[in-house]
Amino acid sequence: MQILLDESLRRRFAAELSGHQVRTVVSCGWGGAKNGQVLALAATAFDVLITGDRNMQYQQNLSTLPIAVIVLATTDNHLDSLRKLVPKLLSALTNLQPRKLIELTL
């Protein structure tokens, strides 16, 4: 699966998603782009955008893009906190549907 990690997440988190092709927004050259721009660009090459932005669902019309969004809702952005969601995240990736947003919480 082609995964894009948003700027709101630690880039080292990519190593936790073995078995998938993971890139970051910054490594794609899209650093600083607005969420709508990132989603439009990501829709051309990725299956899913993983973000920590809980407001994404209220700010974007995801039904128009062929990409899924997974929001990791943690109390902070520390790698240890994000790692706690890896089992749920890997499970969600197996049942992923385009144009859907999934929020994963601890």
How confident is the prediction overall: mean pLDDT? 92
Percentage of residues in strands? 15-25%
Head-to-tail CA distance between termini: 24 Å
**In DSSP terms, counting alpha (H) and pi (I) runs of 4 or more, how many helices?**
4
Helix-strand topology string: EEHEHEHHE
Multimeric organization: single chain
Judged by helices, strands and strand pairing, the structural class is alpha/beta
Radius of gyration: 12 Å
- Biggest β-sheet description: 5 strands, parallel
Main-sheet strand order equals 2-1-3-4-5
DSSP, total strands = 5
Which geometry do the CA atoms define? globular
Share of residues in helices: 10-25%
Outline the low-pLDDT stretches: none
Structural descriptors:
106 residues, 4 helices, 25% helix
Tell me briefly what this model is.
The protein has 106 residues and is of the alpha/beta class.
Characterise the protein shown here.
The structure is a single chain. This protein is 25% helix and 22% strand. It is built from four helices and five strands, in the order E-E-H-E-H-E-H-H-E. The chain has helices spanning 35-42, 56-59, 79-83, 86-94; strands at 2-5, 21-24, 48-51, 68-73, 101-105. Strands 2-1-3-4-5 form a five-stranded parallel sheet, with helices on one face. Helix 2 links the parallel strand 3 and strand 4 (68-73). It starts with a strand and ends with a strand.
